[in-house]
Amino acid sequence: MYRTKSCGELRLANAGERVTLAGWVQKSRRLGGMTFIDLRDRYGITQLVVEATAPESLTEVAASLGREYVIQAEGEVVERVNKNPKLPTGDIEIVLSSINILNKSVTPPFTIEEESDGGEDLRAKYRYLDLRRAPLQRALALRHRMAHEVRNYLDAQNFMEIETPYLIKSTPEGARDFVVPSRMNPGTFYALPQSPQTFKQLLMVAGYDRYFQIVRCFRDEDLRADRQPEFTQIDCEMSFVEQEDVLNTFEGLMRRLFKNVLDVEIPNPIPRMSWYDAMDNYGSDKPDIRFGMKINNITSLAQGHGFSVFDSVEYVGAIAVEGAAEYTRKQLDELTEWVKRPQIGAKGLVYIKCNADGSFKSSVDKFYSQEQVKAMAEQAGAKSGDLVLILCGAKRKTQGMLGTLRLEMGNRLGLRDPFNFAPLWVVDFPLLEWDDETNRFYAMHHPFTAPKPEQMELFYSNKKEDLERVNANAYDFVLNGTELGGGSIRIHNAAVQERMFEVLGISKEDAEYKFGFIINAFKFGAPPHGGIAFGFDRVCALFGGQDTIRDYIAFPKNNQGRDVMIDSPSYIDAEQMEELFLKSTAPKREE
């Protein structure tokens, strides 16, 4: 064996033992004739010592070591004189009797330590080196632990883990599909699944009443910190269930993960909020409920006083920022410019300062009396010392802008502690979204989501206003302002599914071509069923206190969807193109 112990397990109780370690040289330093070597593996760091009295041959080998050399070292565990309380192994060191260089290393392009001096692009190019760093090792260890707990819980709940295909049929009705040309069927293409949605429903038709899969999914969409072109879902489906059964089952999963992984207790039951309340109070269907600062409708109080900006709009909304009345004019001007950014889209910002002496100072004082300003501030929930921020416009758009502003103020005031966890179920979503540009409805979740049973009459109406009132039998799991999972009770009746395609403007021919297999399956005794899928990468990142999912994926892509380490995507040669019956109209690559 190359090692008898790892670099993270030795303690003072091991003093006197002879051990063999193997790993990477993190650093080596010579002090007063002695050489000290920090040896690292994924379990930790142990200090090695070559004493001044050691044989010259051993001293020479120690002097030749560079960073990231792979070595095997043998010696005796002794108590350390200058202990290092920052290391679990900091009470001991190994007095070496031999060093065997297993492999040399060129100088790495950045330091492989807790805090690296390498930029993001450089570390991505040498991802295999970045993965040696402790923060990424902790992240992947957390991911491993989470997957283990998920499997154990779902197995105990009688779920079966069943794999579904990666090469499927393209049915674009949301994000773009990644497509794969078929050599054996010229001119045809597979698609990589955006989710196993239809397959898990077919498994319910097949009688496998509790299915799960920790599965890779693919979407060709623009990227951001919590989005990758390939990502992992905890994908689940259950037969003979109603919404309450699904929520109870997966509350149990989340409670187990929080308790067994983080030793954190979360509310039991987890709070629930309707989509309409979420939008009205937080401006988001994934509200962060760790802090207050709710959105308040002040339209009736703001209009009718000669201020045309407010008088000409559908909605005026406000949030009260606790203790922020001391904001300077410079700070308020900066905040005004912040909400005008294209990402937010506001035309301006109105404020009210609730001064400590009981007076009010507003940016629109000339249009309102003190009593009128006070009424708006009180409607917003403000008290002495608070700052009221006001936006206006179309109702849902303005609520969305206020929701984004609310999160920004939460960040600025330190109200969004990543280790303060506030889970929430959001329920009662609209089933459909109307798009004015295409003049048609789209499914808010996906076209297999069932309408609320009590609203089937509205669902079969041909009136747009009736269809807009139909709620989906759907639910999202939200944590700290991030949607971690979503699901629904599914349509299991062929006629209802055909009606859904009709409402979505999908012709019978298109429905048959894209989804005929599942419509036909529903005709053979499909059971009532429903499920949920959690974004596993996002769950891991939030449990680790991070916003970005990249550190929780071994080999992620960058914001352009590229893997700069292996230089992918890349061109294929002319012979491969010919085999796949493809021609490219893209510019020729530079040689």
Category from helices, strands and their pairing: alpha+beta
Radius of gyration: 30 Å
Number-wise, the strands total: 22
The chain-level mean pLDDT equals 95
Distance between termini? Answer: 48 Å
Shape: globular
Q: What can be said about the biggest beta sheet? A: 8 strands, mixed
Tally of helical segments: 18
Spatial order of strands in the largest sheet: 6-9-10-22-21-20-17-11
Low-confidence stretches: none
Written overview of the protein:
With 591 residues, the chain is α+β, with helices and mostly antiparallel strands. The protein is 29% helix and 24% strand. It contains 18 helices and 22 strands. The protein has helices at 56-63, 120-125, 127-130, 134-156, 197-205, 243-262, 275-282, 299-302, 308-311, 329-340, 370-379, 395-412, 456-459, 464-467, 494-503, 508-522, 536-543, 574-579; strands at 18-31, 34-41, 44-50, 70-79, 92-103, 160-161, 179-181, 189-191, 210-218, 230-239, 272-274, 296-297, 315-321, 350-354, 360-362, 387-393, 423-427, 432-435, 440-443, 474-479, 482-489, 529-535.
